[in-house]
Amino acid sequence: VSLLLPHGWRNDTHVSFDYQSPLPAPLVQGQAVGTVTIALSGNRQMTVPLIVGQSVQALGVFGRAARRMHL
């Protein structure tokens, strides 16, 4: 998300992310997995899709075991 905001915006801005946690793999780059809502003062609000930036493959049995053992 790229926004042009006025000076002092941090005091009057709220950003929230809405998605199901944990995100189940596999995830495909470009896939929408939730929303990002940016609320500014004066009841101005913008909601945009939360998009996967990089594909993530599902781990198999051995991959999950290795991950738990920190290999």
Keyword list:
71 residues; mainly beta; 3 strands; 3-stranded antiparallel β-sheet; single chain
List the helices and strands and how they pair.
Layout: E1 14-19, E2 32-40, E3 44-51, H1 61-68
Antiparallel strand pairs: 1-2, 2-3
What report would you give on this structure?
The protein is mainly beta. The chain has one helix spanning 61-68; strands at residues 14-19, 32-40, 44-51. A three-stranded antiparallel beta sheet has the order 1-2-3, with no helix packed on it. Strand 2 (32-40) and strand 3 (44-51) form a beta hairpin. The two termini are 34 Å apart.
Describe the largest sheet.
Answer: 3 strands, antiparallel
Poorly predicted regions: none
Helix content: 10-25%
**If strands are numbered along the chain, what order do they take across the biggest sheet?**
1-2-3
- Distance between the ends: 34 Å
* CA radius of gyration: 17 Å
What order do the SSEs take from the amino end to the carboxyl end, as H and E?
EEEH
Beta-strand percentage? 25-35%
The coarse silhouette is elongated
Overall SS class = mainly beta
Average pLDDT: 84
Number of strands: 3
Number of helices: 1
